[in-house]
Design goal:
globular; mainly alpha; 128 residues; 73% helix
């Protein structure tokens, strides 16, 4: 398996990793959203993007069935989100693990999986 076709989901995953494990003080200064629990929306958006780009990369570069593409995307993205939450709990002082964050990650993943067929239908997938 070549890594180059997967550069977009890898880039997003690294961005999530950095944002999740860096100091919360630095990230809050960059916040574009100013409402209660706005971080949940950010979790949703990033995991939505991760699931779309990963599933599309799998679609383009493998011959596995659609059902297995969905399952693989779901398992990889949700597991990644859980691992990030565990890392926040054990390896950071300024961040904390939150089950609601994991739920937002999962919902973003599910929505990304559900919307990809529509992106393919309207040829928007060429931008992924």
């Amino acid at each position: 398996m070549k890594i180059k076709p997967y550069w977009k989901p890898i880039f997003i995953a690294l961005f999530i990793f950095y944002g999740s494990l860096s100091s919360g003080d630095n990230i809050n200064k960059l916040s574009l959203f100013h409402f209660n629990n706005s971080d949940k929306l950010i979790h949703f958006i990033f995991y939505f993007m991760l699931s779309i780009t990963l599933q599309f990369s799998i679609l383009r570069n493998t011959s596995i069935s659609r059902k297995n593409q969905i399952l693989l995307t779901f398992i990889v993205v949700v597991t990644y989100g859980i691992i990030i939450e565990v890392f926040q709990y054990y390896f950071t002082n300024s961040r904390s693990a939150d089950i609601i964050d994991a739920l937002a990650n999962t919902l973003g993943c599910i929505c990304g999986i559900l919307i990809l067929p529509f992106l393919n239908k309207f040829t928007l997938s060429k931008y992924l």
